[in-house]
């Protein structure tokens, strides 16, 4: 990470203020007025539109193996996703993925 | 389709709950979420320390931003030395969903005093939003002070546990033996968060578009690929939702 102290604190400050603005937006300023349906519809997909793209390269080309696809990490990802879909539980998915990662890394070692 | 619902009443019913009791209900309902918040907070603390952030910076993120997914997203881009503006824009894009939560709570809390709305907003997180929204929907006659009390109860444990977990992660992160696959804590955490969200074909379509898009736009400068892919994925999700609704409501 090659950032100056000022840059790091600027990132933290802008994210803190910006995130509060997003949280306060409708509650604070718009109050009881309803949003147009199409806005809500698009906003509804923000988490599933941003997070998968964020991690796809990390799963497919892990930096820890110099960008080479890695069996343990790929299996851990599949188990995490499958457990999450099946149990709907974030906790079980994380535990299952972590156990898979450690187990396969240990066996393949 | 266009059936008229009776207007929601904010009046206190005869059985209006005492705010203190509602607060305790919120507190109790939030307990299971601590099992998610604590490990997630520790992952952030560990990864932030591994990435080179100081303890103060790590806590600045957790206390000031208080939104785990965007904090990890920012860290990820910072580890890749992305330009500062891209780090800010992408992390805020991750938090756009908070504006959606804000919009969906507004009909229930919009008439509360400004200071109460500001507190709710400051502490708006996925877990308490989900709890509060479900509770407000099932008890439409709940008076506004009780709604505020319930909300406050649902976050009162989550806030300190999140901050303490980040702190522990940051402090223990220094002592983690080399060779542990800490790098993969972020993908596993996010996959675990995403999977339960894939409830409909529209959500799955948005997620797949996001993955394909990010790989297709990998060559864009300044890590812009993720933002572009996310915008397209949001539109795809919305379009598929409309298409699905038309398929189901075929006769109209």
Topology:
The complex is a heterodimer of chains A (109) and B (252).
Chain A: H1 5-30, H2 37-43, H3 46-60, H4 71-87, H5 90-108
Helix pairs in contact in A: 4-5
Chain B: H1 19-30, H2 34-51, H3 55-65, H4 68-79, H5 84-94, H6 96-109, H7 114-122, H8 126-138, H9 144-156, H10 158-173, H11 185-194, H12 201-216, H13 224-248
Kindly summarize this structure in a few lines.
Chain A has 109 residues and is mostly helical. Chain A has five helices and no strands. Chain A is extended, with a radius of gyration of 20 Å.
Write up what this structure looks like.
The complex is a heterodimer of chains A (109) and B (252). Chain A is mostly helical. Chain A has a domain at 55-108. Chain A has 5 helices and no strands. Chain A has helices at residues 5-30, 37-43, 46-60, 71-87, 90-108. In chain A, α4 runs antiparallel to α5. Chain B is globular. Chain B has 252 residues and is mostly helical. The longest helix of chain B is centred in the last third of the chain and has 25 residues, at 224-248. Chain B folds into 2 domains: 19-179, no CATH class; 198-247. In chain B, α2 packs across α3, α2 packs parallel to α4 and α4 (68-79) runs antiparallel to α5 (84-94). The chains are: A mainly alpha (109), B mainly alpha (252).
Overall mean pLDDT of chain B:
85
Rg from alpha-carbon coordinates of chain B: 21 Å
Number of domains of chain B: 2
Q: What's the total helix number of chain B? A: 13
- Based on CA inertia axes, which overall geometry of chain B fits? globular
Structural class of chain B: mainly alpha
Report, as a whole number of angstroms, the end-to-end distance of chain A: 29 Å
Shape descriptor of chain A reads: extended
Oligomer: heterodimer
Helix/strand order of chain A, N-terminal first: HHHHH
Low-confidence stretches of chain B: 1-14
Estimated share of beta-strand residues of chain B = under 5%
The secondary-structure element order of chain B is HHHHHHHHHHHHH
Count of helical stretches of chain A: 5
Terminal CA distance of chain B: 10 Å
Report the structural category of chain A.
mainly alpha
Query: Helical amount among residues of chain A, as a percent range?
Result: over 70%
Number of strands of chain A: 0
Biggest beta sheet attributes of chain A: none
Radius of gyration of chain A: 20 Å
Biggest sheet character of chain B: none
């Amino acid at each position: 990470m090659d950032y100056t102290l000022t840059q790091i604190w600027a990132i933290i400050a802008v994210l803190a203020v910006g995130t509060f603005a997003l949280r306060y937006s409708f509650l604070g300023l718009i109050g009881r007025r309803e949003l147009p349906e199409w806005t809500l519809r698009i906003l509804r997909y923000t988490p599933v539109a941003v997070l998968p793209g964020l991690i796809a390269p990390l799963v497919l080309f892990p930096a820890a193996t110099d960008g080479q696809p890695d069996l343990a990490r790929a299996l851990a990802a599949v188990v995490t996703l499958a457990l999450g879909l099946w149990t709907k539980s974030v906790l079980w998915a994380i535990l299952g993925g972590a156990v898979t990662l450690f187990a396969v890394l240990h066996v393949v070692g | 389709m266009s059936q008229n619902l009776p207007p929601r009443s904010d009046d206190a019913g005869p059985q209006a709950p005492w705010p203190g009791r509602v607060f305790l209900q919120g507190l109790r309902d939030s307990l299971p979420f601590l099992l998610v918040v604590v490990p997630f907070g520790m992952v952030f603390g560990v990864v932030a320390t591994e990435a080179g952030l100081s303890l103060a910076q790590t806590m600045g993120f957790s206390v000031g931003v208080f939104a785990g997914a965007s904090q990890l997203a920012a860290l990820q881009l910072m580890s890749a030395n992305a330009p500062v503006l891209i780090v800010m824009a992408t992390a805020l894009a991750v938090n756009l969903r908070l504006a959606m939560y804000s919009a969906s709570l507004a009909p229930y809390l919009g008439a509360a005093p400004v200071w109460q709305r500001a507190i709710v907003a400051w502490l708006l997180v996925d877990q308490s939003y989900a709890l509060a929204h479900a509770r407000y929907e099932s008890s439409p006659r709940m008076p506004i002070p009780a709604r505020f009390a319930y909300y406050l109860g649902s976050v009162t444990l989550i806030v300190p546990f999140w901050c303490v977990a980040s702190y522990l992660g940051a402090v223990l992160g220094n002592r983690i033996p080399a060779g542990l696959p800490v790098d993969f804590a972020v993908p596993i955490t996010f996959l675990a968060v995403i999977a339960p969200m894939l409830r409909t074909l529209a959500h799955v379509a948005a997620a797949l578009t996001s993955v394909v898009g990010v790989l297709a736009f990998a060559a864009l400068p300044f890590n812009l690929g993720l933002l572009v892919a996310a915008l397209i994925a949001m539109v795809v999700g919305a379009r598929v939702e409309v298409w699905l609704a038309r398929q189901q409501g075929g006769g109209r």
